Amino acid sequence: MGSRLTRPRGGARAAAVTIRRATAGDAGRLTRLVRRSRAYEGPYASMVAGYRVGQDYIEAHEVHVAADGDGRVLGFYALVLEPPELDLMFVADDAQGLGIGRRLVEHLAERARAAGLDTVRVVAHPPAEDFYRRVGARRTGTVAARPPAVPWDRPELELPVGRGAEVTEREGR
Ligand SMILES: CC(C)(COP(=O)(O)OP(=O)(O)OC[C@H]1O[C@@H](n2cnc3c(N)ncnc32)[C@H](O)[C@@H]1OP(=O)(O)O)[C@@H](O)C(=O)NCCC(=O)NCCS
After folding, report:
1. What's domain 10-160's superfamily in CATH?
2. Which of 12, 86, 99, 120 has the fewest CB atoms lying closer than 10 Å?
3. Ligand 1 atom nearest residue 11's Cα
4. From the first residue on, what is the mean pLDDT of each consecutive set of 10 residues in the chain (173 residues)?
5. What is the three-class DSSP state of 50?
């Protein structure tokens, strides 16, 4: 990946980011983003080993990328509408903590709302649960482990996206 980004206040950095629909040509870079994510190293590696974000998948679902002014892809999400679920959400390791994940959640909430949804289900990577809570999701349950690919339980959450359910504002912003 490119050089590390400097870390001014998250909101300021994320403001320079644009979100666009992913195209089939993004498949390789989105696949690399998933496979290289440090959050899936060590005990979690089985989940992303061999994982591929394919062109067909990108064309079939709501896949949107966050890119900087140079067009570098810093993160993406994949929203599946049938049944409604946030399937993937990744921010590049060196771009985390800058507000990009929050921007992606705001964007996916708009897309889900436009599709007539009130809530979106999220089955979270355990270390990411507090991120989802921070942006307004609430815990609804636990999805049991499915070894060998997913040998750990995962938190299940619900993200409200209907009218009046704006993504929780960051306090003090
Ligand atoms: C989880 C992830 C998408 C968050 O993206 P991000 O760009 O780093 O998040 P943001 O900077 O927008 O953070 C938004 C808020 O959540 C908080 N937050 C982010 N990650 C958090 C975490 N792991 N635990 C607790 N809070 C977290 C931030 O402090 C911030 O709070 P604030 O705005 O109220 O101050 C990103 O860390 C990531 O890609 N992780 C690896 C892959 C992964 O686990 N994806 C989820 C799969 S289910």
Report:
1. Gcn5-related N-acetyltransferase (GNAT) (3.40.630.30)
2. 12
3. 33
4. 46 80 98 96 89 97 97 97 97 97 97 97 97 98 93 97 72 46
5. coil
